[in-house]
Amino acid sequence: MLVRLTYASRASHGVSSELIREILDSSQRNNPGKGLTGILCCNADIFLQALEGPRNEVNALYNRLADDSRHKDLTILDYAEINVRRYSSWSMGWAGAKQANRELFLKYSASDRFDPFSMSAEQINGLLLELTETVSAIKSPVLG
Fold first, then answer.
1. DSSP the chain
2. Which pLDDT value is given to residue 131?
């Protein structure tokens, strides 16, 4: 059974390009063997991530993330059984919440600020889907 879990969290000490690279490298190294795919979006202090894969693997990864001191205030925004993956070609893709995306944020939320905590699951899913289609995301194909 496949599931998609979407969560948001706040960075404990800000987000640097080194931290993003570390997260992506770890995800791209570890996720393919566990059947996990997804996307990570972040700004200066907020992470938004969608994870897809076998229920037991998604749950195990989320539990590890909950113990990760690099972020706090983990909030599950959506958790659903899925028939097909949305991010099947990415072991973990990345889309930055750049100023250029303000119009997109306004389309899916009450303001032009990146704040997934104030968005519904449907709004977040729409935003992430559109980010994958319109934003230059750093992508790494699933290996194997």
1. -EEEEEEEEEESS---HHHHHHHHHHHHHHHHHHT-EEEEEE-SSEEEEEEEEEHHHHHHHHHHHHT-TTEEEEEEEEEEEESS-SSTTBSSEEEE--GGGHHHHHHHSSSSS--GGGS-HHHHHHHHHHHHHHS--B--BPP-
2. 81
Domain edges within the chain:
2-134
- The answer to whether 54 and 71 have CB atoms below 8 angstroms apart is no
What contacts 5, CB < 8 A, 6 or more positions away?
50, 51, 52, 58, 59, 62, 76, 78, 79
Report the topology of domain 2-134. Answer: Alpha-Beta Plaits (3.30.70)
Residue-wise pLDDT tens digits, 11-54 = 888 777 787 788 778 888 888 899 999 888 877 788 899 999 99
